[in-house]
């Protein structure tokens, strides 16, 4: 799997956006709400993707 540095940077930016969204959603609805769990799962997927990208580059 070949991933450019630009792709990795975009993925990292997306992670930060979703992380911010999670804080907002959890503050509004609570940490155990359905909405918070859905955003948290989205963040988990992005973090797993980023980890794979970082490992494949070394």
UniProtKB/TrEMBL annotation:
Domain of life: Bacteria
MF terms (GO), sorted A to Z: protein dimerization activity
Coiled-coil intervals, chain numbering: none
GO biological process: regulation of sporulation
Classification via SUPFAM superfamilies: BAS1536-like (SSF140500)
InterPro entries, per the entry: HLH_DNA-bd_sf, Spo0E-like, Spo0E-like_phosphatase, Spo0E-like_sf
PANTHER family documented for this protein: ASPARTYL-PHOSPHATE PHOSPHATASE YISI
Protein name as annotated: Spo0E like sporulation regulatory protein
